[in-house]
Specification:
- With 518 residues, this protein is of the alpha/beta class.
- The chain folds into 2 domains: 200 residues, Aminopeptidase, CATH 3.40.630; 266 residues, 4-Layer Sandwich (Nitrilase/N-carbamoyl-D-aminoacid amidohydrolase), CATH 3.60.110.10.
- The protein is built from 14 helices and 21 strands.
- The strands form 3 sheets. Strands 8, 9, 10, 11, 12, 13, 18 and 21 form an 8-stranded mixed beta sheet that branches. A 7-stranded mixed beta sheet has the order 1-2-3-4-5-7-6, sandwiched between helices. A 6-stranded mixed beta sheet has the order 14-15-16-17-19-20, with helices on one face.
- The relative contact order is 0.09.
- Pfam families: Acetyltransf_1 (PF00583), CN_hydrolase (PF00795).
- Keywords: Hydrolase.
Length: 518
């Protein structure tokens, strides 16, 4: 700031106000960032700024002078254990899109603080830091952590290591405009980060990892039981289609598998799409549309029986899918029966041409990621997994495991489901379990042959099997598949993987948006 500028501000009618940022502040923010960061690309694009406001509006604050933002601070809440001390700026901030924001996290992470150069002698940075501390206290977060640039290190790099430089600044033998300010605001240096902001030439790519402890933090009570699982055990049933003489007989067969998977302490049992199809053979039908509607009349009873099994055997169950008549319309519905007695539904969104033509089946209009006692899951019924947008939307809701109950009659149909399921695991950095049926039903029109190989797929990286297949069954053989999946590996992959599909997505260029209900 020049003496002329000081004089101009001193004589100006300054009216400062601390508030949250809004979308209309972007031109002022862009102007400041272009001035403050000319050697680092200048301002963020408008889309990145808007993403921050949308994701965590309470954490984006500014000081205005007569209605114009002249200083700003950006923050995000993270579960710090997921990242640890070895992280880069892009990893922990989601490339500043705040895709790493976790409302249930424990740390307020500082994304950026900057002040219009014309206002620097007014100590606006200190006001922003105090506002951040107040936010941290009000949100009951244990600390503020940030990576701090050391821009004057470039002048000392030839004869000082980063550690020696930090100590010199701490002893006030060397001045650094950022680190000196942060130390004066009660932040402690935890360690030196290398490659934190590679484009920061002034800091030589180094940064300090700083922490401010919230002494008023009240730790959340740790659970003695029922805590978040780090490993989930998936049980899949490769279901043999066989002649059934009653609903009771079908439910008895379901109970056999539920009992077996429960004995192995599975967290969830997956049954195939239309596993109850043998019941269509209980009566003669004039056409397929009549047969599927006959089958639909058993769905409420079977759902209730499976809900009872989930509770009594202490296992979550995805009851494959079953036809459901609702207000005169026919749908294909998957039921998630939790072991606490609650039930959720996922309707098939894309009926196949056969389902629409021969059964007059309609598609649902909601897509939901479900919370369970072992993780966050999604369900896509068969053909739905061939539409990558659906899994992407579930991935954006932090889905960890995708379940795909399917029914395919031929191997080429099966391979469509399998290949797409494997792609969804890689694209969305999640596990995908697929479960189908086998055998023949000569007496049932349109469901007379089956082909299946049930499997659980993983992302493709070093922490997972080399072929990204956790396990798979013998094709066309009735059996169960039991697989343990490590949920913590998904978080490691997202932040430290060879590729990082979630973090590296170009949100400034494209997005997938849900336009329907829910």
């Amino acid at each position: 700031m020049t003496d002329d500028t000081n004089a101009a501000l001193a004589g100006a009618d300054i009216k400062l106000r601390l508030r949250n940022l809004v979308a209309d502040d972007y031109p002022a923010i862009k102007k400041i960032m272009d001035r403050v960061y000319p050697g680092m690309g200048g301002a963020w694009p408008r889309k990145k700024y808007q993403a921050m406001l949308k994701t965590f509006p309470e954490g984006q604050i500014c000081i205005e002078d007569n209605g114009v933002a002249v200083a700003a601070a950006f923050s995000v809440i993270v579960d710090y254990d997921k990242f640890g001390d070895e992280h880069t700026y892009d990893e922990i901030t989601g490339n500043a899109y705040l895709t790493t924001h976790d409302p249930n996290g424990d740390v307020l992470y500082g994304v950026d603080v900057f002040v219009d150069p014309d206002y620097r002698n007014l100590r606006l940075g200190r006001r922003l830091y105090e506002a951040r501390k107040e936010l941290c206290k009000n949100l009951n977060l244990r600390a503020i952590i940030a990576g701090g640039r050391i821009p004057n290190y470039r002048d000392q790099a030839e004869h000082m290591t980063p550690q020696e430089y930090i100590e010199a600044v701490r002893r006030r033998e060397v001045y650094d405009p950022i680190l000196s300010f942060q130390l004066a605001n009660d932040f402690e240096v935890k360690r030196v980060l290398k490659g934190y902001l590679p484009e920061d030439k002034e800091s030589q790519g180094y940064a300090t990892l700083l922490e401010w402890f919230n002494i008023y933090y009240e730790p959340k009570d740790s659970k003695l039981f029922g805590a978040r699982k780090t490993v989930a055990r998936i049980g899949c049933v490769q279901w043999q289609m066989r002649e059934m003489h009653s609903v009771e007989g079908l439910v008895k067969q379901v109970e056999y598998f539920v009992d077996a998977l429960s004995d192995y302490r599975c967290d969830i049992a997956l049954f195939p799409e239309f596993f109850n199809a043998p019941l269509m053979g209980l009566a003669e039908h004039r056409n397929p549309a009549e047969a599927i509607r006959f089958l639909a009349q058993f769905t409420p009873r079977i759902r209730d029986d499976i809900q009872r099994l989930a509770v009594s055997y202490n296992i979550n169950i995805i009851a494959g899918s079953m036809p459901l008549l609702e207000d005169g319309e026919l749908y294909n519905v998957a039921y998630l029966c939790r072991r606490d007695g609650s039930v959720d539904t996922q309707y098939k969104l894309h009926p196949t041409p056969h389902e629409k033509r021969d059964w007059a089946m309609e598609g649902g209009n909601r897509l939901t990621a479900f919370d369970t006692d072992f993780g966050r899951i999604g369900v896509l019924i068969c053909y739905d997994v061939e539409f990558p947008e659906l899994a992407r939307l579930l991935g954006d809701q932090e889905m960890q495991i995708l379940f795909v109950p399917f029914w395919t009659d031929t191997k080429n149909g099966y391979l469509r489901v399998r290949r797409c399921a494997q792609a969804r695991a890689i694209e969305n950095e999640c596990y995908v379990a697929i479960g189908g049926s086998i055998g023949n039903l000569p007496q049932v029109d349109s469901v007379d042959i089956q082909y299946s190989q049930t499997a659980v797929f993983s992302p493709s990286d070093f922490s997972f099997p080399h072929d990204a297949i956790m396990a798979e069954t013998t094709p066309n053989t009735e059996m169960t598949l039991i697989v343990d999946v490590d949920l913590d590996k998904l978080q490691m992959l997202q932040n430290e993987g060879s590729v990082r599909n979630y973090l590296d997505r170009r949100r400034d260029l494209y997005r997938v948006q849900w336009l329907g209900e829910g």
